[in-house]
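User: Show me sequence and structure for the first protein, then do the same for the second.

Assistant: Starting with the first protein.
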Amino acid sequence: MKSFEANFDGLVGPTHNYAGLSTGNVASKLSANDTSSPKNAALQGIAKMKALHDMGMTQGVFAPQERPDILSLRRLGFSGSDANVLEQAHKEAPNVLSACFSASSMWTANSSTVSPSGDSKDSKVHFTPANLTNKFHRSLEPEITGNILKAVFNDDNHFNHHLHLNENDHFGDEGAANHTRLCSEYGEQGLEIFTFGKYAFDQSKPAPTKFPARQTLEASQAVARLHGLSDENVVYVQQNPHVIDQGVFHNDVISVGNQNVLFYHEQAFLHSDAFLAEVQSKFGSDDLHFIKVTTDEVSLEDCVKTYLFNTQIITLADGTMAIIAPMHCYHNPKVKAYLDKLVTLNTPIKQVKYFDVNESMKNGGGPACLRLRVALNDTELNAVNQHCLMSDELFTNLNAWVSKHYRDELHFDDLRDPNLLMESRTALDELTQMLKLGSVYHFQQI
């Protein structure tokens, strides 16, 4: 049976703005309070999705969260009409208001962890939404993420959906941004690598000191248990605390894998030699490519600035691989020179394709942040909600939808505007009808 990797990219929501909410994410903090362009951000993301579709990839679309999150604002004591809630929050707690407007769900790499049917004991594809407890604005997402996942992967014969982990820092889970999978073929049993930042129950272990470690070992172990993974096909590795303190807030900012390729910076992992030996042993095949980038080749600072590793590695129809990189990599001479050299080496990576995702990059998310990887076989793909798969028709409809509903610019003071709330709800209601998702948002269930 044919198998492949589908990428489900998050649509940028109508309230995309720069609030600098993510401590530890250098780009996010540097862009705080800049003027954003929700329309450009959404169109850039849709253009990337269509380009991958045209390259022969299976490309899906993942709906954004309902924003502003009025329900959360009411839980926090703001009352009256929706307009009054926004005005009170703007005056009394502007940081809370910003958090409840965040469009961070565009980064679907954080939405959940996915294990393919080839890895799980029940031979189903498993999904666990990330609880994202480390950041308030992201902790608002898991419930609706679960609703959307169930609406997209809506056949219980093939898909198994789990509740997100306990909402506590001990089980802080950031989803697929700290998870990758190596395999020979997507449909065969693979090796799942869970990268964590700290041990929650053992304070004596190494941990970052400047920025928070968002993923715990205990959360990764819990997801592996829920997904029915065997110990022989799982590797746990700690992210180097030093790189977290340099702004590498997720592992997908410092390494990325695809099939038999692991592309990583030499500073990415703690105890790298032991980790790589375990990966090699459990992978089994000698046909495994460890592509290590040294600090001399590309500095840690340039990795964070350009998101060299927050790129997608995709397998093309001819069996070779391509890197999907942000334009920031193209414009950095040292990174561009490295990538030019990489495609000439004896590895499966033979192409680099550059995309303009600047609106996302300014908020701290590159091409890899924007997509959730789901390995599927033909039968499972047929069980997916087909309205969420990219096509020429959907591309046209999404562009028209964005042009109709999204603002060209957004400033912080715009967040108090009740018209923005209504614009966002109208847009999302229309989107759920387009994608046949049903009533996944709270405002649709009232």
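Switching to the second protein now.
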Amino acid sequence: MVQFNIGVGGGMAAAILAALAYLPVTHRDKTLWHSALKTVPVAVCAMIAMTQSAPGLLVAGLALSALGDWALSRPFERAFMAGLVSFALAHLCYLGLFSGLVETWRILPALLLIGFALSSELWLAPFTGDLRGPVRIYVGLICAMAVAALSLPDLYRMASVGALLFMASDLILALQMFRMSAGTKRARWAGYALWTLYILGQMAILFAFVALKPAA
């Protein structure tokens, strides 16, 4: 049995409001204001995790994600690579966190995700140009993280859901970046979808570790 920890409610509400404020401007020019607004929601989640004495790997994963949000919102090639590295490290943190809690590994999700990773060689890798190597590594990391998340005990099922939402947002981001023309209506709607899935995913992972506690 679990009970809700109301101590994180205010912080989550602030993060949700910031995420909603950013949603309509996901397609706008990458100004400093735009970057700051994008960074706030997950940065607040990292602060919640830290103040609630959450596992260090969760705090680090959220903080690295916030750093990645800032970097990916800047209009520079080096900033993009910094963002890619930040999110790769965040997935490593989540992978370490989830793996340490797994009691029994689930084989079917692992096989399905391995198949998904291999399939990206057909629909994604040929379109990534010089980024093919980093993208391959990133795909492998997020699939490994999802395998660990789907093997979590039932108490952390919300983190499993969050990991899948996070993965779905990355899938849409990959399609938006490498398979869609910038500035199109389809790319704009993809931006709305990936931001929504990403925020819900991060918050679900946070919720699993700080808002749900074993009942006394």
